[in-house]
């Protein structure tokens, strides 16, 4: 994506500043400084729902305790979609994949967490 396209995308996102999560915005800027130059984290500033994400993580934990790994994965996935910085959900999803012997997906999630 060229610089102009990126600027336009950021400006479009900025139109709804009332939904910005300031802490997440600062995290996004830190990620950018670390060389992670995608817009994923910046987008999360606008669409993050940390409270609902935490609820879904908790539901996933309950399913995990009951050895219902597929249902736990579904909850953790929704949690991650709502708050991509919720690394506990991603770590837990990695463990579920591992329990299901889906080591490829387990490794992908583990690498993101690390």
From TrEMBL:
An annotated GO BP: post-translational protein targeting to endoplasmic reticulum membrane
Q: Does the keyword Repeat apply?
A: yes
Q: Which InterPro entries match?
A: SGT, TPR-like_helical_dom_sf, TPR_rpt
Q: Where are the TPR repeats?
A: 53-86
- At the top level, the lineage of the source is Eukaryota
What keywords does the record list, in alphabetical order?
Answer: Repeat, TPR repeat
**Can you list the GO cellular component terms from the UniProt entry?**
membrane; TRC complex
Annotated GO molecular function terms are: molecular adaptor activity
The name this protein goes by in its record: Uncharacterized protein
Query: Which species does this protein come from?
Result: Arcella intermedia
